[in-house]
Amino acid sequence: MERNLYTNYDTIMRTASSPRKHARPQEVYERLRALIIDGRLAPGTRLVETDIASRLGVSRTPVRGALQRLQQEGYVVDSPTLRQTRPTVAPLTSDDAHELFVLVGALEGLAAARAALGTPAERTALATELAEINDAFRSAATASRPDHGRIFELDERFHRCYMQAAGRRVRSLHDTVKPQAERYERLYVSMLTPELHTSVVEHRAIIRAIRAGDAPAAQAAVETNWRNAAERLAAVVTATGERGSW
């Protein structure tokens, strides 16, 4: 499995800009994080520092820095072997999903509450945009042959709209946590499609609260949406099995 995943990685790298021998840890971090979020480096994949450096055409120093940062943020964990520990793409588990979704809900709830405090004109414009996206989301989710990529993209657009009202610290934390939740959304979206009608209803509650300027209701509606999403996802993960667990 590892070899196939890294072969995929080679293909990706050939279509990207040429790596530099003295690349910064940030560049390596962004490339590896993107592969993890997209699922192209699967949960449980062992990350060998020398192998990554060779395939990226960089020294081991930026790879080491990137792996340390990815571990701090939860994308990578240490997996014990007989004699040593080795960085491994973090597994996808029910407990982890629940924790991430609740965290995302808390951060986005703060943003929605702030959006609900905007001027009447701002709230109306935002609510109108959210309603249009939610209608498209409903249509995509109920199509006879759902386009799961489009469903994911529309859901992301919906939540990004009110996140624009968030303060700098909230956005910074959200940028760290939300992509980890995306790993679950991307992998399990096809299995969650039958339940998406519930998300449509929950989105409408968010829209109503923002339009009405009810900050507590907007915050509660967003938190409820993410909490319920965590429960729906947990049921799917339990039914299909956790990914990458030792």
Description:
With 246 residues, this protein is mainly α. The protein is built from ten helices and two strands; from the N terminus they run H-H-H-H-E-E-H-H-H-H-H-H. Strands 1-2 form a two-stranded antiparallel sheet. A hairpin with a 4-residue loop joins strand 1 and strand 2. Helix 2 crosses helix 4 and helix 5 crosses helix 8. It is globular and about 60 Å long.
Short description:
This protein has 246 residues and is mostly helical. The chain is 72% helix and 4% strand.
Sheet with the most strands? Answer: 2 strands, antiparallel
Going by CATH, the architecture of the largest domain would be Up-down Bundle
**Cα shape:** globular
CATH class of the largest domain: Mainly Alpha
Portion of residues in beta strands equals: under 5%
Structural class: mainly alpha
* CATH fold descriptor of the largest domain: Four Helix Bundle (Hemerythrin (Met), subunit A)
Low-confidence regions: 1-7, 11-19
* Total count of helical runs of at least 4 residues: 10
What's the overall average pLDDT, rounded?
86
Distance between the termini: 15 Å
Q: Which homologous superfamily in CATH is the superfamily of the largest domain?
A: GntR ligand-binding domain-like
Gyration radius over CA: 20 Å
How many discrete domains?
Answer: 2
Find the count of extended strands (DSSP E, 2+ residues): 2
Helical coverage, percent range: over 70%
H-E order: HHHHEEHHHHHH
Kindly report the spatial arrangement of strands forming the biggest sheet: 1-2
